[in-house]
Amino acid sequence: MRGYALAMRILIVEDDPVIGDAIQRALVRDGYAVDRVENAQQAKAALHAEGFDLVILDIGLPREDGLQLLRELRRKGRNLPVLMLTARDGLTDRVTALDLGADDYLTKPFQVLELLARCRALLRRANGVASTRLTLGRLSLDLARKEVMLDGQGLELTQREWSVLECLVLNAGHIVPKDKLLSAVSSWGDEISLNAIEVYVSRLRAKLSACAVIHAIRGLGYRFDEKQD
Q: Which of 102, 109, 137, 141 could be 97's S-S partner, Cβ–Cβ 3.0 to 4.6 Å?
């Protein structure tokens, strides 16, 4: 497998449809839930309505540019990671973006593999994950390969089962709301209901019954815990 994606949802704010579509397709292939808008007003509406974990933000947007949008987000206390994209290569723009609170900066044209790597690094940092390998008792996850091992033996998971498990494991011991899990596996165009999350959780329980417990917290969500011997 080429890379890994934390169980996260990404918003692309890019007015060039060719570039925006190429970025979206690459991110979806890498396992992310991705939505795309073309201007700052649409971005504000999307961020108000949905929970995103990373924004890929072009500076050169029509009317209100990306720097203005970034300034407003930070002024309102929105601390989600922001990766800035621009065709401008001047030092002033890079410094301005970073000073306004951008987490990273990429100049067009860029290689898709570099974009994906920067997204992974930002999401790892935001989730406090220093390593690409996580171990919880008898269970281990290789985030770089999207592999799950139980007592050293691989477990077969679908992409959405992986995304749900990863989200639960990254928040082990804490309640993860159902809508957060839904956001991790779906974009606007996907017809997935909260009932589907129950199906994925049920499958994971069956596959992980020897080493973990996924508690259903009524009215709140799910909590992943290691099974105690």
A: 102
